[in-house]
Amino acid sequence: MADDTMNKALISLALPLLALLMACNMGAGGNASSGESEQGNLVGARIGAPFTLTDQDGKTVHWDDYKGQYRIVYFGYTYCPDVCPVDLQRIMQAFSAFEKAAPARAAKVQPIFISVDPKRDTPAVLKTYVAAFHPRLVGLTGTTDQIAKVAKDFVVLYNAEKPEGASEYLVSHSRTPYLFGPDGKPIALVPVDDPGTPDVDEGAPDIVRTFLEKWVK
């Protein structure tokens, strides 16, 4: 991940926006409705929209191609030096454990990685990257405009940090892995570790597995 200060700034912008999007799931007094724990903390949020992107095999894919499946959607990029690979490893470890424990339910889930660095993340680059985490993880990329639209529709903030004259760069982006239902609507945020609480591991594989067991029916 890029500079930690920049990442915190992006997250600080993303969280209020998510709160606004989720407002329709709140009662008149501003508290979550009594059914929130049964529904998921993103139910009613305006997150997600139809898209057309390219997968790691160079095939054109659409959001509706996954209709009828639960979808774990994670935004990141293959050149990320730390956070992205750690998050993906933990999420996919949890998914592998879920597959062993409940294969029929796990078969209803499609994990998806969407790049916020389309200039470098070609289908060939993504193919090698996603294969390192799980055989069912799909990697998606597209044009700069396509990725910008998808990020906006999925409430993801990102910014390339390229020093003048440098050939390499990092990309700061918000960490918002989502679980969507078979209807394509958001259910809840997939747990990831919070660097602000070093004594608590919120994104441990067993926690993510419990999350999947709870929401994937």
Automatic annotation (TrEMBL):
Protein name (Swiss-Prot/TrEMBL) = Protein SCO1/2
List the top taxonomic levels of the source: Bacteria, Pseudomonadati, Pseudomonadota, Alphaproteobacteria, Sphingomonadales
**Annotated Cu cation binding sites:** C80, C84, H173
Among Pfam families, the record links this protein to: SCO1-SenC (PF02630)
- Report the superkingdom from the record: Bacteria
Point out the signal peptide segment: 1-28
Disulphide bonds annotated for this chain are C80-C84
Q: Which InterPro entries match?
A: SCO1/SenC (IPR003782), Thioredoxin-like_sf (IPR036249), Thioredoxin_domain (IPR013766)
Please report which protein family the annotation says this sequence is part of.
Belongs to the SCO1/2 family.
Q: GO terms for molecular function, please?
A: metal ion binding
Q: Which key words are in the record?
A: Copper, Disulfide bond, Metal-binding, Signal
What parts of the sequence cross the membrane? none
